[in-house]
Amino acid sequence: MAYILGVDCGTSGTKTVLFDEAGKVMASKTIEYPMYQPKNGYAEQDPADWVDAMKGTVKAVMAQSGVKKKEVKGIGISGQMHGLVMLDKNNKVLRRSIIWCDQRTANEVEQMNRIVGREKLIEITANPALTGWTAAKILWVKNNEPEIYSQVRHILLPKDYLRFVLTQEYATEVSDASGMQLLDVPNRRWSDEILSAFEIDKAWLGKVYESCEVTGTLTKKMADELGLCEGTVVVGGAGDNAAAAIGTGVAKDGKAFTTIGTSGVVFAHTSQVSIDPKGRVHTCCAAVPNSWHVMGVTQGAGLSLKWFRDNFCSAEKETAKYMGVDEYYLMDKQAETVPIGANRLLYLPYLMGERTPHLDPDARGVFFGLSAMHTKKEMLRAVLEGVSYSLRDCVEVFREMDIDVSDMMACGGGGTSPLWRSMLADLYNCPVKTVASKEGPALGVALLAGVGAGIYSSVPEACEAVVKTDKVQNPVAENVPAYESFYRLYTEIYPALKVQFSKLAAL
Question: What fold does the segment set 249-436+467-507 form as a domain?
Answer without folding.
Answer: Nucleotidyltransferase; domain 5 (3.30.420)
